[in-house]
Amino acid sequence: MKNDTQNDRKVVIEQHKKFSESCLWKMQRDYFDQEGINAWVNQVPFYITSNPYIANCYAQIVIRFIRDTIQRNPDAINHPFYILELGTGSGRFSFYVLKTLHELRQTLGMQDVSICYVMSDFTKNNVQYYETHPALQPYLAQGLVDFAIFDMEAERPITLLKKNIRLNPETLINPLTVFANYIFDTVSHDAFTVHEGKLYELLLSIATPENNMHDNKPVNMEHLSIDYKVNEIKNNYYDDPDLDQILDIYKQQLTESSFLFPIGSIKAIKLLKKLSQNKLFIISSDKGYSTVASLDNLGHPSLSFHGSFSMMVNFHALANYFKNSGGDAFLQTPHKGIKTSVFSSHQQLSELPETALAIHQYVEGVSAADYFTLHRRMSDTFNECSLDIIAAHLNLTGWDPHIYLKLANRVTALVEESDQDTVAFLAKNMPKMAANYYYMPKSDCILFEIAVFFHAVKRYADALHYYQQAQHYVGEQFGLFYNIALCEHHVGKIEDALANFARAIKIDSSSKEAIEWMTYIQKELADKTQTQ
Ligand SMILES: C[S@@+](CC[C@H](N)C(=O)[O-])C[C@H]1O[C@@H](n2cnc3c(N)ncnc32)[C@H](O)[C@@H]1O
To answer: What are the chain's domains?
Structure first.
């Protein structure tokens, strides 16, 4: 056994490294690669950027952008509109965007417009999950979705895995839309500090206790300690006027602060600009800063670890980069919560009337951040809410299964004493909730909970329908067979009920209730035969 002094001994992992060249970024990629879809099982937060509300905001903006593009150039309708999602993660957000885009295309009579939504990530483990996900199959069959492996830190071709098309200037005739949620904070940054009017780069050193090392690698990123050294910058740091101009703004305007510069994201944006012949339209939501004032008086960058780690995105720098290179940006007025930003590489947003209106409504209006703030406050009080308030909240969430799963017990406890209009309103919207089901490992099945709701309100045929659908996800379970049997008995399917009580007993032979039900039904069937 090691003594305390040995345990406290530190290993230096790297010393005085440029921030964007630190091994942290490789550790980050290794984490996501190894975890694959499990990264979203109680590790990396995802709900804030992966819910029907934010997906609706994005779909509404992009559909308006497509309409503006066709309005300005009628030939655009003859070519596909590609939407590339970077660092897609679980795919939950993509599914809701696809669903809404599909509905909007129908409602707005845009069936002739070819849209291809490309879910990309750098790890094939995530992409494989999307390829076989049941919720995405209808959109795959329609050609509305495709998949790609794209590492933002590597300048490699982007090939659509299903259509086998490469995104390049020949295929990207229309502007390329890019969605980037919680990804600009995940790829590499440089770090700087301003002190007494001088600009310094921050060089990073990382150490960790010896007992956190295995196979020459740190085991737990939370046990890394980070240290900085400064190095004065005298010349143009990036040798790129669009970028050096931004550093100059900070040198002139920050009184005393350290800040990050999203160089990994900018390199990826440059590549996408090249592929699309400088016709790029980006929507991004992340934690971040959007004004010089908010970048001032900050300490050296701190990393927040949650399985992976993330940083604050310098949206102000990204906006300036687009503006310096002939484009435009809209940054949401800062308030607490994540920030949504819109960037255009080739046209002013004011030239796109429908898009500008949608940005006004879905970014500056009740935004993804506002939705999340309200939702979080509500979720603290779910157990005090009456059914009408719960129903209103579920409507606001867009009938989100993830939220219903947190509320299901409260709902079933309240249905009996609540007014029938509210119960009917919930019942009417249950199919919408079922259609919003995006399966994630180790999470409860919404179809089962919807069945329980219908069971509780004595709509046995509907309950049966959802219990039977749930079987695919929950497998052979006592509770499922028992509930199916109860509903079958209620709708007069006596033989089926008997068979399902028998299945339930096979799983739990000690269940007195199930045995009593079987005896009761056997007698019922015998009496029936006698009277015939
Ligand atoms: C913090 S998660 C965000 C996921 C999702 N966009 C969301 O909002 O929940 C970062 C995602 O980016 C992916 N990723 C990490 N480094 C990447 C890189 N260099 N290029 C592309 N994707 C990357 C990870 O696999 C992960 O899916």
So the answer is: 373-531 (1.25.40.10)
